[in-house]
Design a protein that fits this description.
With 402 residues, the protein is α/β, with parallel strands linked by helices. It folds into 2 domains: 207 residues, Rossmann fold (3-Layer(aba) Sandwich), CATH 3.40.50; 148 residues, Rossmann fold, CATH 3.40.50. 37% of the residues lie in helices and 11% in strands. InterPro entries: Ferrochelatase, Ferrochelatase_C, Ferrochelatase_N.
């Protein structure tokens, strides 16, 4: 059981509660048989905002990083190599404050639409923990929750691990047979997520034009992941290539953004950042800094850096992009701008509530908005989706086993 303020998260679950005859753990009756899309209304009584979590002081940094890397046997001296990013900012990650703002914005949007659903917030790796949020919701009399994970794309770390950690929290609290927890679909191509990036890219291109840059390239940046994980992201039957659903979803969204801002003639590419594995382990490439360094050789004099894989300006954005990537651009004589993340952009907040309404109303799939041919994504994750080959399949909610 998590203990607030101590940096302790629940251990991995040994199982997940299945209602009699159900195929999906801890699911509402409408989702228990694992349909791709839930097309009947569901009476949820609360929202669970599931965050990653981040330290909020120097003493929190190493315990937080131990949580993030739990089970990987990484010694503290190696964690200190990452800790200096947080220590540079006083040991405080902005991610918790962003989630406080997002929670408040969601609550306001729900109220404005006359939807009486409280929003509970719990993190995977730091206070407030997911078990605390589940206990709070249960104590208030709520029994059927709809989760919103603060990650838009399909991969182990951006989808399945959230589902596993909710299963861990249900077991740790003993609420596995008491609470039902469904999850909204991955929203990488929902208009609410895409629109803020369209606004940001249009603004970034205009800013560089004002600075006199005449040959600009747009770099869409996202967190790198191991190639083995990328290959297994999304359902295997989709056959989306070496980068799996993770790379394909980012690529598709970037194409939509460039078309939407009327910049089809502006060169762009998908790049990766923040890799943390050993050099012997293949990760998705190219690295954002390598891509920037190559731009002058292609005749570029400016670069727009778009944090396409991120919802808010958390540490990987502040350090890896605002610090390292912008420094690389300066070293190579490039005019550069890093554009905004969705944060609490009104379109993004409204879009998340639209996803809640989909499940409240059981909106048919053909009526669900999606900006790419890959979507709308599934309500219930498919079997074998987003496997982590180093950990294997662990108990998880909101998806068919394994």
């Amino acid at each position: 059981m998590s203990i607030p303020g101590t940096g302790i998260k629940p251990p991995p679950a040994t199982g997940a509660y299945l209602a009699p005859g159900a195929l999906v753990a801890a699911a509402s009756p409408a989702a228990q048989q694992g349909p791709e899309y839930v097309s009947e209304p569901v009476g949820y009584d609360a929202i669970l905002l599931a965050g990653f979590g981040g330290p909020e002081g120097q003493d929190d940094v190493i315990p937080f990083l131990r949580n993030v890397t739990a089970g990987r046997g990484i010694p503290d001296e190696r964690l200190e190599e990452v800790a200096h990013h947080y220590r540079h900012f006083g040991g405080v990650s902005p991610i918790n404050e962003h989630n406080r703002q997002l929670r408040a914005a969601l609550a306001a949007e729900l109220t404005a639409r006359g939807i009486d659903l409280p929003v509970y917030w719990g993190n995977r790796n730091w206070d407030p923990y997911l078990p605390d949020a589940l206990r709070e919701a249960h104590a208030a009399g709520h029994r059927r929750l709809l989760a919103i994970a603060t990650s838009a794309y399909s991969s182990y770390s951006s989808c399945r691990q959230y589902r596993e950690d909710i299963a861990d929290a249900l077991e740790a609290t003993g609420l596995g047979g008491e609470l039902e927890v469904d999850k909204v679909r991955q929203f990488f191509d929902h208009p609410g997520f895409v629109t803020p990036f369209c606004d940001a890219v249009a603004s970034g291109l205009a800013q560089l034009r004002e600075q006199g840059a005449g040959n600009v390239e747009v770099l869409f940046a996202t967190h790198s992941i191991p190639t083995a994980d990328a290959q297994r992201s999304g359902p295997a039957h989709l056959g989306l290539g070496e980068g799996g659903a993770y790379a394909a979803q980012h690529q598709a969204v970037a194409e939509v953004v460039m078309e939407a801002v009327g910049a089809q003639d502006v060169p762009w590419q998908l790049v990766y950042q923040s890799r943390s594995g050993p050099p012997s382990q293949p990760w998705l490439e190219p690295d954002v800094n390598d891509a920037i360094a190559a731009l002058p050789g292609d005749g570029r004099d400016g670069v727009v850096i778009v944090p396409l894989g991120f919802l808010s300006d958390h540490m990987e954005v502040l350090w890896d992009l605002d610090n390292e990537a912008m420094e690389t651009a300066g070293e190579h004589g490039l005019a550069a701008v890093r554009v905004a993340t969705p944060g609490v952009h009104p379109a993004f907040v409204a879009g998340l509530v639209d996803l809640v309404v989909e499940r409240l109303q059981g909106t048919p799939v053909e009526q669900r908005p999606a900006k790419t041919a890959l979507g709308p994504w599934y309500d219930v994750c498919r079997p074998g989706c987003c496997e982590n080959v180093r950990r294997g399949f662990r108990p998880a909610v909101a998806g068919l086993q394994p």
